[in-house]
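Below is our example:
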Amino acid sequence: MDPLNEIWQAALELMAKDYSDTFMDLWFRCLSLTALDGKSAELSCPSDFKTSSLNKGYLDTLEKYLEMVLGYRPKAAVVSTEPPKKGHDWQLPEVDAEPAAEGTSEPIGAGEDKQDPESAGFERSAALSYGNAEAENLNRDSGLPFDAPDMAADAREQGDTTDPQLPPSLHRAEYTFDNFIVGSSNKFAHAACTAVADKPGKSWNPLYIHGPSGLGKTHLLYAIINSVVARYPKSIIVYVNGEQFTNEIIEAIARGATSQFRAKYRTADMLLIDDIQFIAGKDATQEEFFHTFNALYEEQKQIIITSDRPPRDIRTLEERLRTRFEWGLIADIKPPDYELRIAIMQNKANAMGMNIPLDVFRFLSENLRSNVRQLEGAIKKIYAHSYLTKEPVTVETALHCISDMVSGQQRAAVTPEKIIAGVANKYGVSADDLKGKKRSQDIAEPRHIAIYIMRRMTEMSLPQIGREFSRDHTTIMSSIAKIDERIKNNSVFEIEINELMKEFIRTP
């Protein structure tokens, strides 16, 4: 696997938390990381126009997110890979490649008119719809007017048999049921999603999945999409998040285009809405979604909803919507337990071709507990660090890589006083002895260890550490070198030091 691509994908995942899919598709997902060293990063872009805009206004942004992955800030530059233009020999886009107009759907495939007896209601031309704002940006990018006729729909009626093509914002082939790691905290939600994907509109309708951010809800939604597209290639699928749905209804009202808006959503075979809690408290949006829900439900079309909380806990959500969300099946996803956290990280490391010792996985699992996204981010960061520095992956390097992921309280707790007290207790000496002048072996070695750990686990400089032990910085350097050398030659001693450092993080 290309390490540069892995680093860039990790940066894109971080960007996606702060920017909309529309913005990501327009500016960042078209880029590739082509070169990287300790000081600079080069990214390629297929458009001259976008390259110019990115170099003028987005280099700081690119550098910021690369720094979050790499641990240092490279100087970024974007280069264009667009071929030179040759006069006016361009051609108009092919009919079946034009973006769909407002109120229509983007083709993802077609085939013979053979109906699966289990796929009743999934018989229309294959399509996957996405937001008007995204369609507008894509049309602008191709030079087409936003209100261009739906020639793609005409092509479908004439028997177009092109292969399925997903819009950029939904092209997430990496999200499948096969690579979703199942554990006790998500087993029920996973089973519910696979049942719905097998028989849309027949098993559980609506399906409501809730849980904190970063636990895999969106992964399951894309897994459903990929499974349904594979099994029912002529289905019309609409995926949208709560914020985008709200923005679209506002735009439709402002433009007098509510009929097109309704046609888009109420003719879908499957509607997936992510982060439904966003529509709470918005009267016009809730009104429109209520009627959309009813129209689809009465036609036995599958509705799948995700949220960060159960329906009863969404304040300002209309009661009539709350009761409808509870008609079907409600499945929750909880934070992964210790074993599942290790399994998730091992799976990610294997996919990246990394060989990470088990004690590193255990260390990460003990200290990163909030969500799956954090665990995968840690593996990617360790991978980037190992690739760039050529250093082996150890608990110490893992600690260095995740220092910005643990809570501020945990980082603040690792103080010089705590390290001195912990080392003194571990080796049966007093804190005063460690900081004093005695040079006997039973005192000197724990002192060297305390100095080494203080250097690795705090931001203190050599002179600052020296002041803690009433020694100059050259003596501190000598102590660190002695422990470094012993670690290299004694794996048992290395484990001992790593375990001791883990204790300083775990202990409040």
